[in-house]
Amino acid sequence: MRKIYLVFLAVVLSGCGSNSLMVPVSGIVRLDGQPLVNASVSFVPQGNGKQATGTTDEKGKFVLSTIDPRDGAMPGTYKVVIAPNSAASDMPEGLSASEAMAADATAAAKGTKSKGNLVPEAYTRPDKTTLTQEVPSKGEVVFDLKSK
């Protein structure tokens, strides 16, 4: 009986791993003062951690997902990459980061073009972006981008 209890306890505790470390992260992205619609927002960890992603809605708002839909991001420092999301109009809301990246890669392979605002290249690449964010954040995260 004790052996069954220990196995059950191990199974239950293994399900409580990294999701318990998640911090809810939401925010808004504006380009030249206007909401940036259908943009991919990626938090790229600077150190240990996992990438978190979200997609902006018609008001420029996003919620990050890492493992499960809308679960947030792990605590830490991140580079922030914001890019036109070619698959945003075809993607259901609430995808995990890996599901969103797979859907965007599929759209890119099909040659789907972005229909949203043009985002300056400086924000679209992890090696060029100057945007950073600490998680947990104090309140809603706001990114005000400039096209020039």
Distance between the termini: 68 Å
Task: Write down the CATH class.
Answer: Mainly Beta
CATH architecture: Sandwich
Could you list the spans in which at least 5 consecutive residues all have pLDDT below 50? 5-16, 110-116
Sheet having the most strands? 4 strands, mixed
Strand content: 25-35%
Mean pLDDT, as a whole number?
Answer: 80
Total number of helical segments?
Answer: 3
Structural class: alpha+beta
The dominant shape is globular
The CATH topology: Immunoglobulin-like
How many strand segments? 8
Number of domains: 1
Rg calc: 17 Å
* Quaternary structure: single chain
Description:
- The protein has a single domain (22-145), classed as Immunoglobulin-like.
- The chain contains three helices and eight strands; from the N terminus they run αββββββααββ.
- It has helices spanning 2-14, 97-110, 121-124, and strands at 26-31, 34-35, 39-45, 52-55, 61-63, 76-84, 132-135, 141-145.
- Strands 1, 2, 5 and 8 form a four-stranded mixed sheet that branches.
- A hairpin with a 2-residue loop joins β1 (26-31) and β2 (34-35).
